[in-house]
C-alpha cells in the first residue's frame, strides 16, 4: 500500500510535503505525450520556415508579411513552451520555482504579443481595404517594425508588472513541492482581461465587420464593371483583387485564432479551470497551442510564396549567393 502511495507523489522522498501526480493509464499518458510532442515539433519547424522565408527574401519585406513574421515568432515559442506543458500534464513541476515563474511569464508575454499582433494585422487590412490610396504612405515596413516592437515591449513590461510579486518571491504561492503556480492580484487580473482579451477582440471584430462590408461592396463593384474597364482600370481592378485575396487569407488566420483563443480565455478568466477535470483543461490549453501549428498550414494553403520559399529552403538553394534577391512572388 505504501508503494502505491509513493508512486502517486511527485517527490516520493518528501512524503507529505510532495504534490500528488494526476494518475492516468500508462497508454493514455503515452498517447498524450506522443501527440503533444509531435505537435510541438511540427509547430516549431513550420514557424521556423516562415521566419526564415520572410527574414531572408527581400521581396517578402512588406508590412503585412512583417506582421506575419511577428506572429510566427510568437508561434515558434508556443511550440517550445508545449514541452513544458507536457511536463505539467501529470501535475508535477520538476524544475526550479524561478523557472516556473519564467515559464508563465514567457507564456503570458507570447499570448499578449500574439493578440497584439492580430490587432495590428486587423488594422493593416482595414487601411488596405478601406483606404487603399493612402495605404502605401500610411503603412510602410518602417511603421510596421515600430508597431511590432512597441507591441512586444509593451507585452513584456505589462506582464512583468503583472507577475512582479511572483518574480520577487518565486514559489511563494506553492502549497506543496512539485507545484507550479503563479498568483495575480484582483486588479491585475481585471487589467489583463481588458487589455489582453476583451479590448483586442472587440477591436478585431469591429474592424473586420467594417472591412467585410467594404470588401463585399468592392467585390460587387468589380463584378459589375469588369466588362467595361479600360487598361488603366484593369490595373486598378487587379490591385483590388490582390488586396481582397490578402484580406481573405488573413481573415482565415484571425478567425481560426479567435476560435482557438476564446475557449482558453473563457475558462481562465471565469475561474472555470478549477471546476474542470484535468483532461478538459488540457484540451482547452492544447486547442490554444494548436493554433500556432495551424497558422503556417494556412499560409501554405493560401500563400504561393510560402510554398515556393519552403521548397527553396528545404533544397538548400537558400544558401546560394544572392538568394535573398530571388523572385518569390
TrEMBL record:
Spell out the GO cellular component terms annotated for this protein, sorted alphabetically and separated by semicolons: plasma membrane
Q: G-protein coupled receptors family 1 profile domain location, by residue?
A: 46-299
Q: Does the keyword Membrane apply?
A: yes
Q: Where in the cell is it found?
A: Cell membrane
Recorded hits in PROSITE patterns, A to Z, give: G_PROTEIN_RECEP_F1_1, G_PROTEIN_RECEP_F1_2
InterPro entries referenced in this protein's UniProt entry, alphabetically: GPCR_Rhodpsn, GPCR_Rhodpsn_7TM, TAAR
Does the record carry Transmembrane helix as a key word? yes
User: CDD domains from the xrefs?
Assistant: 7tmA_TAARs (cd15055)
Q: Tell me where on the tree of life, at the top rank, the source sits.
A: Eukaryota
**What are the protein's UniProt keywords?**
Cell membrane, G-protein coupled receptor, Membrane, Receptor, Transducer, Transmembrane, Transmembrane helix
Chain ranges passing through the membrane: 30-54, 66-89, 101-123, 143-163, 197-216, 250-270, 282-302
Provide the membrane topology annotation.
Multi-pass membrane protein
Which GO molecular function annotations are given, in alphabetical order?
A: trace-amine receptor activity
Task: Give the Pfam families listed for this entry.
Answer: 7tm_1
Query: What family is this protein classified in?
Result: Belongs to the G-protein coupled receptor 1 family.
The protein's name in its UniProt record: Trace amine-associated receptor 13c-like
